[in-house]
Amino acid sequence: MIVNTKKRIPNATMKRLPLYYRYFKQAEEAATDRVSSREISEALDIDSATIRRDFSYFGELGRKGYGYNVKSLLNFFMEHIQGTDKKNIVLVGVGNLGSALLNYKFNNLSDKMNVVAGLDSNEELIGRKINDVVVHHESELEDIIKKEKVEVAILTLPVSASQEMAERLVDAGVKGILNFTPTRLDLDKNIYVHNIDLGVELQALFFYMKNL
Q: Which residue intervals are the DNA-binding region (predicted)?
């Protein structure tokens, strides 16, 4: 397998990579040895040409007439896309959304991530355990990030508190933030922020439904 990961990868391709990883993981669990771009296309509802183009950014991952070796591709995604180390994560803001996220079963990512703590300022939540994750007071943020070597934070705070908390997370050593608030965070360009605005996503859904 010839791999070239030095090309600039489009954002649209990057967003599809977790879907490919999950597909190959499920194929491995089903004892499937190899798959074609057509089979991937039918399973994920992604055009075959798009799949081949996405994979081309990383070199020769498959062979014409043979398809893609499931084990090889799964190992590739684990090593070059997700990395081999497990990321420690904190969730900041244990309200309704934050609690729901802590209760979510990240089964497909259990070997890649570990939520080490929830953080909140609500005294009634401090000390509670949600899905085996203990909620700490936000005053402990810096100590927890340092002790647990946390690199990633999930932010589910009110808009008014998001920017200040994001800056605090970065100062404490966090390298990436999954932002569930409508706020567009103004941070150093070396900090990666992935925004998930549920309002925007719903509007997009309504638009696609209307234009089917």
A: 19-58
